[in-house]
Design a protein that fits this description.
Length: 171
Amino acid sequence: MDEQYFNLTLEDGSEQLCKVVFTFDTDDFSYVLYSIVEEDGNESEEITALRYELDEDGKMTHFTPLETEEEWDMVEEVLNTLIAEFGDEADYFTIFDENGEEIECEVLHRFELENFNKNYILYTFADQDEDGEIFAAAYIAGENGEIEELLPIESDEEWAKVEKELESINQ
């Protein structure tokens, strides 16, 4: 598949080159997940979303921001599905046990809890079967989205939100 790009007109009238990551339609709107192409030609690691329409030539136009929390939740679910289906090394990371032995872990799900301003993962040991234990942690991401550092989940309120996320993906 050829890479697709579009120009987004910014508030100051300048244009920003954007790379299409994925497009999808719902009954009501068409959405584009995209990243910014920096001035040096490198692609930003951050992916965001807009609504769009197609003009008579089939080009994306009339970009508008997402309006509701439900839309953002739906976009996040699509993005998490894409990461799970098509992701690469960012879906695996290594930890060390108390004996200094490496343990390869597989990321099952990534999400953000805005009230705690943290990113989280649900993960399991890569060599476990499907019914293996699932672990949760906050994390710091590296430049390419890789798991750079795991952080503890610090409060009962935070645990409750993480458990709610786990329940929502197990439905």
